[in-house]
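Hi Prof. W.,

I finally got the SCAN box domain-containing protein prediction working! I wasn't sure whether to trim anything, so I left the full sequence exactly as given:
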Amino acid sequence: MFHSLLAGIHGTKPCGNQLPSAGGFDRLAWRNYEEEFAKGQLDVIVQERDGEIAQAELARKERETERAYELEKLKIASAADTVSLNSTRREGSRNRREIKHLMQKFDSQNTEISLYLTLFERQAKAAGIEEEEWVSQLISLLPLDLAQIIIKESEEQMREYTNVKKVLLDRFKMRPETFRIKFTQHQRKQGALWKELVFALQNYFDGWIEGLNVKDFKGLKEL
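And this is what came out:
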């Protein structure tokens, strides 16, 4: 634009990037150029400022989201502690081991919920953790979305691990028929240990008969 302005003033076409000195312009043309240049610089400053404001706003929202997440976790932990305190516990359970240090957190992408809960129960028993403490211990191993499902249950329901277990199994549609199909169709994966196959089959079988409330051999024969 500036080159065109020069050409209009002098009746010549500017060559390359070389600009004639200001002495060859009339004052009005030079003033117009200065105004255009100042406007351009102002636009750059405004754009940079808008970018800084947008980044600051994004950072603020991220901090608020993080605080909200931490607050929700604290609420869940507080509710779990309330359930734990309202439960009957032995004196020695105050010095219980934290199961979150004994096993990895649940990952629904890589672990099946029924197998994970069975492993959790075995670890809790091996660590000497009272069953009244299992709910609060389990919540510490669950992602936020699953912990929120549990926390929405009534306090009475949350006291019982069996109720919480049922809620989680229902969430992943692990019903008696699902366990039956898995029990009859499950095969050992290549490279897996035989004891891993036995563990999985035992888990599926237990889930199948427990879901149907089978208590004796007669009920088992009627399956």
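DSSP finds ten helices and no strands in the chain. Does that look reasonable to you?

Thanks,
D.
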